[in-house]
UniProtKB/TrEMBL annotation:
Gene Ontology biological process: meiotic DNA double-strand break formation; meiotic DNA double-strand break processing; reciprocal meiotic recombination
Annotated GO MF terms: DNA binding; DNA topoisomerase type II (double strand cut, ATP-hydrolyzing) activity
Gene3D superfamilies given in the database record: 3.40.1360.10
Native species: Trichophyton rubrum (strain ATCC MYA-4607 / CBS 118892) (Athlete's foot fungus)
Residue span(s) of domain Topoisomerase 6 subunit A/Spo11 TOPRIM: 35-207
Gene Ontology CC, one term: nuclear chromosome
Domain of life, source organism: Eukaryota
Protein name per its UniProtKB record: Topoisomerase 6 subunit A/Spo11 TOPRIM domain-containing protein
Amino acid sequence: MKSGSSIQVGACTEGIVIPRIHEVKEIDISGISWILVIEKEAVFHRLITSGYHNASAAGSGILLTGKGYPDLSSREFLRLLSRHEVCNSKMIFNPLPIFILVDSDPDGMAIMSTYKYGSMAQVHRNADLNVPSIQWVGLQASEMMSAASHTNMPSLVPMSQHDRKKAEAMLKRNPSFAEDGPEPAWRKELQSMLVMNLKAELEILYELDGGMEGWLDRKMSKLC
């Protein structure tokens, strides 16, 4: 930090407040294999408490949450991290993989879009805040629907009228979800939610074999 202090992210057991980028002097990401952005603060704290950032099958990583829709500090800091590169086993430098984990509901999808493409309310700042490299690790209601049919998992949650109106508005007005837009999988997921009239919350992953941590291991190991 420019104040002369330093923050050792891997040593934190409760998380730290995301610093403003003007306070950051340099970032050392040696030993870090991935970044996971998490929609919900409660899920973030569960993973911090379990030590997932140090125990992941994909290697050590950084957990980050904007506590729902991200503020400017969260987006600025993630953008800063996204511009750093790491050296892989073949001694090739690549951007640090960044994943995002959100509820499979319209708000979760909108939050993911905000991180990757920006806010429609702050178009003038999006170029300095977007993280185009972010990868969607989950959650997909369509995937959970299939899993639920073979297990004793809790059922998915019916969509509310608010959910349906928001999904329909996103499909019509948000360029990220347009028919000819950059994210056909996102559009398909929203459409599936509307057809099934169901959504999935992250907490459903607690009920899977291996819990949320095991599910993340399986997902991220394939992507890292």
